[in-house]
Amino acid sequence: MNVVKVLDAKGLACPMPIVKTKKAINELESGQVLEIHTTDKGAKNDLTAWTKSGGHELLEYEEENEILKFWIQKG
C-alpha cells in the first residue's frame, strides 16, 4: 500500500477526526492513500460512513493499543 500522507488525529473528539480527514483527503490526488490514526472510538462508524458517502474506499482498518488506524483511498 502506497501511503502518501499520515494524519495524526489522536486525542481529538468527534467531529474533529472527520474534519481533519476531509481536509487531508482534499490535498491528495485520486487513487492516493491516506493513513489516519485516532483514539476516538466513534471514528470507526463515522469514517466508514463518510468514506462511502464521499466516494472513497476504506482499504483497511485495525486497532492497536487503543489506537484506531484507517487506510482510505481517495475516489
TrEMBL record:
<protein>
    <recommendedName>
        <fullName>UPF0033 domain-containing protein</fullName>
    </recommendedName>
</protein>
<dbReference type="InterPro" id="IPR036868">
    <property type="entry name" value="TusA-like_sf"/>
</dbReference>
<dbReference type="InterPro" id="IPR001455">
    <property type="entry name" value="TusA-like"/>
</dbReference>
<dbReference type="Pfam" id="PF01206">
    <property type="entry name" value="TusA"/>
</dbReference>
<feature type="domain" description="UPF0033">
    <location>
        <begin position="7"/>
        <end position="31"/>
    </location>
</feature>
<comment type="similarity">
    <text>Belongs to the sulfur carrier protein TusA family.</text>
</comment>
